[in-house]
Specification:
Elements lengths: L2 E5 L3 H12 L3 E5 L16 E2 L10 H10 L7 E3 L5 H12 L4 H26 L10 E5 L2 H16 L5 E3 L1 H7 L9 E5 L3 E2 L2 H14 L3 E3 L2 E8 L3 E7 L8 E5 L1 E4 L5 H7 L7 E11 L3 H6 L4 E4 L4 E5 L4 E10 L8 H14 L8 E10 L6 E4 L5 E5 L5 H19 L9
Parallel strand pairs: 1-2, 1-13, 2-9, 4-17, 5-15, 13-20
Antiparallel strand pairs: 3-8, 5-7, 6-7, 10-11, 11-12, 14-17, 14-18, 15-16, 16-17, 19-20
Length: about 425
């Protein structure tokens, strides 16, 4: 049986391992943390959102970035300190503006496909992850932003998404707890939310039951491609000289923001940039807060904030984009706008107990995930999902598993 090693145990790596196992491969997953889903798959916004498929490659994004550059609490913030990686990425980002429409439509189609895969996996493996199929409501405060959203909606509909405009009265009916003076909105009834960390951990357990091997606390030192692939790694905390080696017939890089460095080891260029996002988990410890928090998922376009209700007693609020390199520091001035937003739009919710978090989104300049072969035989990539890793991962995992099956099929196919 062909042996494939997956680098990374986040949502992308674990869904990839699962798809490969079901295709008949012997699979090993290597991750530098002790458990699955400990980085970007730990506490994201929770939305499974085809309605958020619009790529960011638009001149309005560039204008807002320049406008907000010196405002510490801005939804989009860029550290102006010179960095070749950052500015070369920005150049490629602007060069991809011409693909804005096509990429938005393609992402919508991929997200719709991923949704079905995700639900099938959860049902097949009995994974509970606070799934709520109540739709996602986007709200807009003025006519200009609503008109832009209408143009985006036409692209989403072309991609196959059922998404409709709603009036201020309909917004109130869809989510009665929401307080605000809105011009209008859009509602996507087929979108949903869930806890990415619970899902990924549950799927990792399902993979283990299928025979997938996990190597945790492992720092990959180098990768060599011969007639096979050799992954040299050292146990976390040990000196780099204490190296162990895993052999495989192929390797899939699903390492999030680390994918760029692994690609360089393999002679490839995967220009992922780490775009930091923040979230707060508001603990709904009293009945008033539980009744005052929304169940329908929201996206506030002006604040660039998304929400998810995770069971009776948790409310996840996430947003912001920060271009500041590999930096996981949790800054008060970036968390405060999220908490203030909760207080303003949901005044009945207590913010006495809030857990902040920051994670690094692995973004490609054109906002499209990279599912492809490498320059060397046996090397594959499934990475660069940006802000839509949770939304797209179940589909891209199938794509890369099919690609590997075509290139180097397992000697014997397991029963799925």
């Amino acid at each position: 049986m062909a042996h494939i090693t997956v680098i990374g145990a986040g949502i992308t790596g674990v869904t990839t391992a699962y798809a490969l196992s079901r295709s008949g491969f012997d699979v090993t997953v290597i991750d530098r943390h002790r458990y699955p889903a400990m980085e970007t798959s730990f506490a994201n916004g929770g939305q499974l959102s085809a309605s958020n498929a619009e790529v960011w490659n638009h001149w309005s994004t560039v204008a807002k970035g320049i406008k907000w550059m010196l405002k510490s609490d801005a939804p989009l913030l860029m550290n102006p300190r010179p960095s070749w990686h950052k500015y070369s990425w920005m150049g490629e980002f602007m060069g991809s503006i011409g693909g804005y429409r096509t990429n938005t439509i393609d992402t919508t189609r991929l997200a719709i496909s991923a949704r079905q895969h995700m639900f099938e996996i959860a049902e097949r493996e009995g994974i509970s992850f606070d799934l709520e199929k109540r739709g996602i409501l986007h709200v807009y405060y003025d006519k200009a932003s609503f008109d832009h959203a209408s143009k985006v909606n036409a692209m989403l509909q072309q991609g196959g998404l059922d998404r409709r405009p709603v009036t201020t009265q309909e917004i109130k009916a869809i989510e009665p707890s929401l307080v605000g003076d809105f011009f209008g909105g859009f509602f996507t009834p087929s979108d949903s939310t869930g806890d990415i960390h619970k899902f990924t951990r549950g799927l990792a357990d399902a993979c283990a039951r299928r025979g997938v091997k996990f190597i945790f606390d492992a720092e990959v030192q180098r990768i060599e491609v011969k007639d096979h692939v050799e992954i040299h790694w050292s146990p976390a905390g040990d000196p780099p000289s204490s190296v162990e080696m895993t052999k495989a017939d192929g390797i899939v890089v699903c390492a999030g923001v680390g994918s760029r460095d692994f690609a360089a080891m393999l002679g490839d260029r995967i220009n992922v940039y780490p775009v930091k996002g923040y979230s707060v988990t508001v603990h709904l410890d009293d009945e008033a807060s539980q009744n005052g928090a929304p169940w329908v998922s929201l996206l506030d376009d002006r604040a660039k904030i998304v929400t998810s209700r995770l069971g009776d007693d948790r409310f996840r609020v996430a947003g912001t984009a920060e271009f500041n390199g590999i930096n996981r520091d949790i800054r008060h001035d970036r968390v405060k706008p999220l908490v203030d937003w909760v207080r303003m739009l949901f005044p009945e919710v207590s913010t006495a107990r809030v857990t902040p978090w920051a994670g690094l989104r692995p973004m490609m300049p054109n906002m499209m995930p990279r599912v492809k072969t490498g320059a060397r035989a046996g090397v594959y990539y499934n990475t660069g999902h940006g802000h839509l890793g949770w939304t797209l991962s179940a589909a891209t995992a199938e794509l890369v598993a099919n690609l590997i099956f075509e290139k180097q099929p397992p000697k014997a196919k397991n029963a799925a």
